[in-house]
Structures
1.
Amino acid sequence: MTKRFRYGTVIIGTGIGFILLFMLNNSMIGSKAEEGEKIDYVIGVSQPNLLEPWQVLMNEDLKKEVEKHDNIRVIYTDAAQSTEQQIEDIQTLKDYGIDLLIVSIDNSSALTPIISEVYKKIPVIVLGRGVEGYNYTLYIGSDHYFIGEMAAEAAISFLGDKEGKIIEIQGLTSAVQAEERSKGFRETIFDLSKHKITDTIAANWQRDKAEDMLKELLQQRSTPPDLIYAHNDAMALGAYKAIESLKLGDIAIIGSDGINKENGGLQLVKEKKINTTFITPTGGKEAVQYAIDILKQKAEIPKKIILRNHKVTAKNVNNYLHEKGEWTIQQLKEDMDLTLGFAQVGNESEFRAANTDSIVAAAEKEGVNLILKNANNNKEKQIEIIRGFIKQGVDVIAFSPKVEDGWEEVLQEAKNAGIPVILSDREIKVKDPLLWTSFIGSDFVEEGRRAARWLVNEHNTVKDKVQIIELEGTGNSAPAIGRKQGFQEVLYDNPNYHIMESLSGDFTFAKGKEMMHKALVRYGREIDVVYAHNDDMAIGAIEAIEEFGLRPGTDIKVISIDATKKAFNALSTGKLNFSVECNPLLGPQLMKAAKDLKIGKEIPMKIITAERTFTQEEAKKEMKKRNY
Ligand code: GYE
């Protein structure tokens, strides 16, 4: 059976000639097919609407990349702002037999069920705007909370010390990205300033709606606001038109999207109609590239690709208008050998050993000149190693930061030296997000949630109070902070699960065993569960429980994170009950990112790895396939 797609119709051959299946409704357009071309894959693209400039640009980015691949065909659908229509479009695409779905959504909660359904059958790439949960293959888009945070910082620096009055113009309130942008904006304004958000308008991403609603509001107010924050540039333009029509003079306007076309954010900044916008890449190009990798079943497909946003003001708009950009990346020459300096945090765990092996092996395979030095879990030593790389003039620096704080100075030195920095498996907290180029690693908060969800859902207990000992990882490290937060989030809704005490085991076997012994002496048989932030501490706890005369996995349930070989052994012998994977095999993605830097490509701000969870039964099946 062959499939050929033409604009507006689908013709599927059945061997007895072509039956014109049906004229698609005006929302569906197939991409042009040439006579007799071999088509390997058919991809469906579902758009919530093609009214918003950003959605239109997304389709343009998708088509530009699709043109480079003769063996794929794409069916584009446009739901014209109707959630019901988009659900129908997705269902129709699925019934066609597409090989992969790319979907950009507006109404996250309404679309999550159908997307989860499709994900059971074929890969799904969620593009630009998120769904709830993790039932998709890959998310490519921005960190919308971060966009709101940056907008608030821009507002604060514009308004200065006096108490400013702000009006927020939101997108579609049921959309995850509008909620996240609003949350990032409001929390930052509240935490860092005295400014007040006096009014909120929900204008559904539309320019005219924003103009009409703001005009009506301003006519009811005795004094104008000091600043407007609009979740996209279209609504920012609407705000500008409303202010202009009421002759209210200069009011600062902050938008988002930064599209480079007429009435796009870049032009609005250039024409001084708005003060600031944030380039929000659509991810269309990356979506096609990853779609092909997924369809070819390439290994190491991440779970999330978070694209970097760039702040644009009158000061730097010309760079972006002429697409020079002020990327934080130094365009390394094609012919240069690539030297990567890696400051490894230590040898504290099985994860770390597998992580180092993966980096060394990938550098070897990719012909990258790797200089890997180990800080032996000492932060000052790690800083010294990074300084050494700067002095040596390596092309790219990567490191796994021991803790979240205290990196500004050395990273500023790296930036001044024009050396991009990649964070490997752990994030940091710095004021200037441009001090690092990319983060490759896990979603630790989700790892903590997964551990707790298993406990509250799978661990049947008759006890009305389940007593938990938590063994925390290295203090102030991103994994320890995130795993604690995620676990507590789920326990918050299950008050009969109670953390008796949290003890720091520093991610090591020895410390984990020592802390568990201390807890056993203190609480003995009162302890029902141990939640360890990594396998090494869990294995140490298991030994301590046995030496105390109790049965790990039976008398005391044990949960860990990493899912390394030691965890699989303990799961298969029943001494460990559940393990959440934290993927240490970051070498291939690290080398890809470093090589992309070499040719001056903008790389994603974050690459979040895909991870699973393992019960004792799942571990027995999976054990043979594990290579760490
Ligand atoms: O879970 C632990 C290691 O940074 C994610 O550090 C990593 C953590 C991992 O010591 O085993």
2.
Amino acid sequence: MSFHTVEQAVGRLNRSELAVPGSQPEMFDKAAKLDVDVVFLDLEDAVAPDEKEQARKNVIKALNDIDWGKKSMSVRINGLDTHYMYRDVVDVVEQAGERLDMIMLPKVGTAADVYAVDMMVTQIEDAKGFKNRIGFEHIIETALGMQNVHEIAAASKRNESLHFGVADYAASTRARTTSIGGANADYAILTGSSEVKNREVHWGDMWHYAIARMVVAARANGLRPLDGPFGDFSDPEGYRAAAKRAAVLGCEGKWAIHPSQVALANEVMSPSAADVDRAERIIKAMADAEAAGKGAVSLDGRLIDYASIRQAEVMVQKVKQIANA
Ligand code: GLV
Ligand code: MG
């Protein structure tokens, strides 16, 4: 290990994160009954300019009046380039800050963006004498945000998670997309050379670099990386495939833009029974090996060593977190 210790952010279960437009209060009660880990009430892109003020009021009322159970609650404020943002922070934190676990910052571009919101939230929390400390979740969804992702991840003690906002990221980088978070047939390789007949087309994951880069910045700063939206909510298999790719790269959660996607996210982002069984056997095999004075042994015909224990412990920890949720 490095001499530098990576401090871990608040250990919050975040397999699924449901987006609920603040302008549609008729959706709030249903959302409160879902088995979702985090709900973010949206004041930003799901809300039209004329509805911003009413949406803010709806969100404050919903945080104060609805029983959200054990869910973590977040509010996505408007971007720092809009005049809605300061009132989002002031009104929501002043009037519902004690019921709020996190604020979601969209289109974060630089560490100074994080600093500015941190300063405002700190003043409000101090003035109101709140005991809780509101965390930050940042959406990395612009070329600028991706360029500065490491500084953003390190910019505040409030930081908890980084989210890949694929829709805005595509707009910002001018990527050619087909659907939000979906694959593109043009991002493919042909097998073989021009002499080969029947060459196969293998689609690639055009979001691989962006997600992998964000995961590194998140983990190097003790934060949770999450994958953002998958727009086609009538395609559960497409959603599952996207969630699995993100999980393989290290993401521990994914957004749901429709209630039907919540169960899919929880399923993909929870360790399977077989994974947990193997993790427990690894921990036992390594304990036995250590007692016998060995640092590496074989299990099921494969080498395991101390790195295997660290992976297994992460899995066992996740199972405990799910059990306590
Ligand atoms: C989320 O905000 C996105 O732009 O994908
Ligand atoms: Mg966005």
